[in-house]
Structure formats: C-alpha cells, structure tokens
TrEMBL record:
It is a multi-pass membrane protein. Its main location: membrane. One of its GO terms (biological process) is transmembrane transport. Belongs to the binding-protein-dependent transport system permease family. It comes from Streptomyces lydicamycinicus. It is found in: Cell membrane. PROSITE patterns: ABC_TM1. The lineage of its organism: Bacteria, Bacillati, Actinomycetota, Actinomycetes, Kitasatosporales. Pfam families: BPD_transp_1 (PF00528). GO terms for cellular component: plasma membrane. The chain crosses the membrane at residues 12-37, 80-105, 117-137, 169-192, 221-238, 277-297. This is Putative sugar ABC transporter permease protein.
Amino acid sequence: MRGRARLRRVGLPYLLLLPALLLELLVHLVPMVIGIVMSFKELTQLHIAHWGTAPWKALGNYRVTVDFDAPAGATLLHSFVVTCAFSVLTVGLCWLLGTAAAIFLQENFRGRGLLRAVFLTPYALPVYAAVITWAFLFQRDNGLVNHVLHDQLGLTGDRPFWLLGDNSFVALLVVSVWKTWPFAFLVVMAALQSIPKDLYEAAALDGAGLIRQIRRITLPSLRPINQVLLLVLFLWSFNDFNTPYVLFGKAAPEAADLLSIHIYQSSFVTWNFGTGSAMSVLLLLFLLVVTAGYLLATSRGRKSADA
C-alpha cells in the first residue's frame, strides 16, 4: 500500500504534465525538427509536392545564407541589423514607459483605477485590429497622424509617407511600443506591490526625495523582475511577425525589413523553403545563444550582488 501511495504521489505531477508535454511535442518540437531537416534540402518550388524526396543539399543553404557578399546574404544581414535596432529600441521604450507609469500609479488619487484600465487597453486589443487601425492612422492623405502633424501643427513641410521609405521604421516602432508597453506596465505594477511601504517612509524621514527613493529602493527591488521582463520583451520583439505583416503586407519596406518578414518572403514568396528554413535555424541558434549569455550574465551579477 505504501508503494502504491508513493507511486501515485510521485507519478501524479508527471501525469498532469502529460497533456502539456504532448501539445508541446506536436506544436513545437515536431515542426522544429522538420524545419531543421528542410534546411538541408534543396526544397524549391520544383520539389514542394514531394519534399521528402527533394535533393539533399547538406550545408549549401547555410552557405548561401551567410555569404554576405552575395545578394541573399547581404539582404539577410541588413534585416538582422534592422531587427536588432528595432528590438533594442522597443525593449528600452517599453520598459521605460511601463516602469514610469507603474511608479506613477502607485500613489492613491482619484481616477487611478480608470487610468490603469486605459493603460492596459492596447494589450487587451487583438493584434490585428490594433495594427490595422494604426495602418489607417498612418495613411498619407487621409490618416490622422499627417492631419495632426502637417495640417494642424505644421511640423512637416509636406505630408510624409509613413508606410514607405525610411519613415516605415518609425511607424513600426511606434505601433510595436504602443501595443507592448502595457505588458511591462502590468508586470512592474504587480512587482511594486511586494516592496514594503516602510522602506519609503524611512527614506522620506531621512530626507530622500522621489528620485533618490526610485534609485535606492524601487529599481534595486525590481532587479529580479526586470531581468526576466527584459528578456521576454526582447524575444517577443525579435520574433515579431504579426505587426510588420499587418502593417506593411508581404513586402515590408527596406527600412522595416525585420527577420521574420524576410524569412517569410524567402519561404512563401520566392518558394525557397530550404533557404528559409536555414535562416530560421540560424535565428533560433542566435536567440538561444543570446538567451543563454543573458541568463549567465544576470545570474553572475545576482551572485556578486548577494555576496
């Protein structure tokens, strides 16, 4: 009887995890393995119908992808640089806005609950509905953005194109930050609840102002949460596909050509799934290396701070 009870106690967690593990296997692991196999094949439009018997290309797709002197490699490198700049700016602005709003709404005042609900609205909206709305706002002739900036304020000499040319990067960044920063706000606001109020009262009695309290109490207390938050925001923004796809369509402007859209074009527009799969594998490896390096660096910093 004791053996059965112990078996139930030990096996129950694995039994409860089994449905999630099966879904993870079917939804993520199996397609990932298939994608890795496809990256070693010459899988073009001529072989899609019988992709299992497509010619074996070994590392040929990877050589084409990383040959930065060739057109395919040069455009991929450009997309990588654009994606890095986009991700860094998105993460920084989302964290800054979310943290500032969360700290501001810690104080009790009339209308605080309403402001919290308003700030969370972009995060609650469906991505497609929100991005399509912004696509209309950024229209050159009938959009609200140009109406305010050009017609009302006169800040631009002419109506700029926001969904074409260099301005497309700014438009993409604005939309991404607008729909993502409420997540940072929500996480930081929840983390602030765990900071004892006595620390702020003692600091105020010692003559510490608001800025000093934030530097000495708030930010150090938020360090464990911020370490996870920054990593999640980076992975989300680096892999973002929905925002540029809905905003620009299948062909994003050169200034806003993120890796997700670039890989989509290589796979589903030019029908070169072998090269697209190779790009996806390289992207996965890059994110794994960045994630491992970030976790290693933050763990060492945490240990040194505790010591």
